[in-house]
Write a structure and sequence with these properties.
seven-stranded mixed β-sheet; globular; about 30% helix; alpha+beta; Chloramphenicol Acetyltransferase; about 425 residues; five-stranded mixed β-sheet
């Protein structure tokens, strides 16, 4: 039964981009998954989704086009039937199939998937929703032994962190690079197909290696990625630039489920002769550490929000505004080779934790980026997942072989489009 529509809200500063640039090839729909020990019960999952939406009303919305901006309003329609996965991940969301909801839920064997249009939330917001969904699902399936826990990580907060952190007196500055990055090329999979290759390994083994190179785990993995690209594109002199999304909540004391992240750019320019892996690690560390600080993020936020609030932008009709957004996006896209997004770790309270097997994610392709990577973990199981529209998998193979050469034990799986042998 439909309900009366009463709620509406503005898009956050970052979300304005996504409705404008989304196409069948660049969907801006990312996936997060939790795998359980047992196969999924479809009917229970359907009930769990409906309960979770009631708990997170900010996700029960649809996207509307206004005269000056897109906006969100409460969706009066019922959430559609959850389906068994039967297509490539991260496809553009068909609003007819989702009853205008901005995300969809599917399952495959023991895995629950949520695919979410980035206009609604970032990776952290999605993880909060997915975590609550898993709690509801397990509670319904094992209601004789499980009670719904209190989890202080879950929040209903939908504040716009960018607006709250905006300082009109700040020394605003853009962090967008003017460098033209190396673009990876290759034969594409037909019909906008997506190769998914996932490597599973011990969190502790990667932490131990990171410590050896005096790097954080994220710095170490980004360096591994940069080195794999360098090795498979030897002789190229263009900058290898890896876009790394950074969660801003920990810098500005926010718990919003809306988008609240900033991009930093791990940059390695192979201008000289051979580079050792350690040299690449040191370069990537320096590049990331020079950008990841509160003062830099504050200036970037203020720069972006000041552009949004400027009268010459605010009162421009949406049709014209979209042309400017597309132009800016195409220009910025030239400054990135690929993306590595760390969704972080997910945790569950006891006794729910004993039903959980792993947590993973997948990114869609974007302009100029035909291969991307995610990092996610549960307990001591780290999942590094590469999504790619290329037929070949040379970068993925080099990445996992590099880790394997450092005596990391890796289990590699794929969706069948490409395989990697170590």
């Amino acid at each position: 039964m439909n309900k009366e529509t009463t709620m509406w809200g503005k898009l956050d500063n970052t979300a304005h981009l996504f409705p404008v640039i989304s196409t069948s090839k660049t969907s801006n729909v990312f996936r997060q998954s939790v795998s359980l020990n047992d196969d999924i019960d479809k009917d229970i999952l359907q009930s769990a989704v409906e309960s979770t939406i009631k708990c997170f009303p900010g996700f029960g919305v649809r996207l509307k086009r206004g005269l000056f901006w897109y906006y969100l309003e409460e969706n009066p329609k019922d959430f559609p039937e959850v389906r068994e996965e039967d297509d490539y991940p991260c496809r553009l969301i068909d609003y007819k199939d989702t009853n205008e909801y901005l995300f969809k839920v599917s399952y495959y064997k023991n895995r629950i998937n949520i695919e979410l249009f980035h206009v609604l939330a970032d990776g952290i917001g999605c993880k909060m929703f997915l975590k609550a969904l898993v709690y509801y699902y397990l509670n319904l399936k094992h209601k004789d032994v499980l009670e719904m826990p209190f989890d202080d990580e879950l929040t209903l907060e939908r504040e716009d962190g960018f607006q709250l952190c905006y300082d009109k007196h700040s020394d605003n500055k853009s962090n967008y690079s003017n460098l033209r990055a190396l673009t990876l090329k290759g034969r594409k999979i037909q019909n906008n197909g997506l190769s998914v290759i996932e490597g599973s390994m011990s969190v502790e083994s990667i932490k131990s290696l990171s410590k050896k190179y005096e790097a954080s785990m994220n710095e170490f993995l980004v360096a591994c990625y940069a080195y794999a690209i360098y090795q498979t594109n030897y002789g190229e002199k263009k900058p290898i630039i890896i876009t790394v999304p950074v969660n801003l909540r920990r810098f500005f004391n926010s718990s919003t489920t809306k988008n609240f992240f900033a991009m930093v750019y791990a940059t390695f320019i192979p201008t000289e002769g051979d580079y050792s892996f350690k040299e690449v690690v040191d370069i990537i560390k320096e590049s990331l550490r020079s950008q990841i600080n509160k003062e830099n993020f504050k200036k970037t936020i203020s720069y972006n929000v000041s552009n949004e609030q400027a009268n010459y932008v605010k009162w421009v009709p949406l049709l014209i505004k979209n042309l400017g957004i597309k132009y800016t996006y195409r220009k910025a896209a030239k400054a990135s080779t690929t993306t590595m997004s760390n969704f972080g770790a997910i945790s569950f309270h006891s006794p729910y934790d004993k039903y959980i097997k792993k947590y993973s994610g997948i990114l869609p392709m974007s302009l100029g980026q035909s291969i991307k990577s995610t990092v996610a973990s549960y307990d001591d199981l780290l999942c590094i997942t590469f999504s790619s529209s290329f037929r070949a998998s040379k970068v993925q193979r080099e990445f996992f072989r590099l880790l394997s050469s450092m005596e990391v034990k890796i289990s590699v799986t794929s969706n069948g489009e490409n395989n990697v042998s170590l």
